[in-house]
Amino acid sequence: MRLKNKIAVVTGGSRGIGQAISELFAKEGATVIIVDLLPQGQKVADDINANGGKAEFHSVSVTDKMAIESLFAATNEKHGSLDILVNNAGITRDRTLEKMSEDEWDAVIDVNLKGVFLCTQAAAPYMKANKYGRIVSAASNVGLRGNFGQTNYAATKAGVIAMSKTWTMELGKHGITANAIAPGFTMTDMVDKIPQEHFAAIKESIPLKTVAQPIDIAYGYLYLASDEARFVSGICLTIDGGTSR
C-alpha cells in the first residue's frame, strides 16, 4: 500500500475526480478525510468504510477559514498527523469577458483560489511539525493555455500553479512537497453537460482521441502524494491526453 497509515484530506471529495481520489487513496491505505458541502460525501465515506477502507466526511466550506482551521486541528489531534492535502474543490461560472458579472468572478476566485490558500495555510503548521507533507492542488490545462469563456476559472488555475511553486520554496526545508495537476477534459458532471456535437469535437481534438476518466487523474494524485515522489516538488503534472503538447 503506497499510502499506508497516512492521513489525507481531500476537498471536493464527493464526486468526479475528488471521489476517485478519495476511493483510490483509501484503497492504498490512507485514512481519507472528505471535505465537501455536497451531502453525497457521506455515502462516499460510508462505501469506503464498508469496503474495508477508512474515511470520514465533514460538511465544511473551503472558504470558511475558522471552520477549516477547526477541522484540521481536530483531524491532527484525533489521528496524530495531517500528511496529505489534496486541494480539489472547485467550481465554474463560465461566461465571456464582457458578460461575466462581478459575482461570477468572485465566486470562482473564492473557492478555486482562496479556498486552496486557506486550506494549505491551515495544514502547513501540522506538516511542518511532523517534518512531512504532501500538498497536491487541482490546476487545469486551462490554467496553462486559457479557454474561451473562462476568464475567472483560467485565472484561478494559473494561480494554483504559481502558489504551488511558491510553497515549494517556502515549505521544502520542512520535508513538504507542493505540486499541481492540470487535467484536461475528464468525464465528470461538468463535462456531461456539454452538447453532444461539441463533445465530439473536443474528443477529436485530443491526440489520444478519448476523454479521461476520473481514475486517470486520480493516479496522478496518488503518485505525487506517495513517497515515490519524495523528490518531486514545484511541478504541474499535465494529464490531458497530449492536448497541451
Automatic annotation (TrEMBL):
InterPro entries: KR_dom, NAD(P)-bd_dom_sf, SDR, SDR_fam. This is Glucose 1-dehydrogenase. GO terms for molecular function: glucose 1-dehydrogenase [NAD(P)+] activity. It comes from Aggregatimonas sangjinii. Belongs to the short-chain dehydrogenases/reductases (SDR) family. The keyword ATP-binding does not apply. Pfam families: adh_short_C2. Residues 6-190 form the Ketoreductase domain. The lineage of its organism: Bacteria, Pseudomonadati, Bacteroidota, Flavobacteriia, Flavobacteriales. Keywords: Oxidoreductase. The keyword Oxidoreductase applies. SUPFAM superfamilies: NAD(P)-binding Rossmann-fold domains. Its EC number is 1.1.1.47.
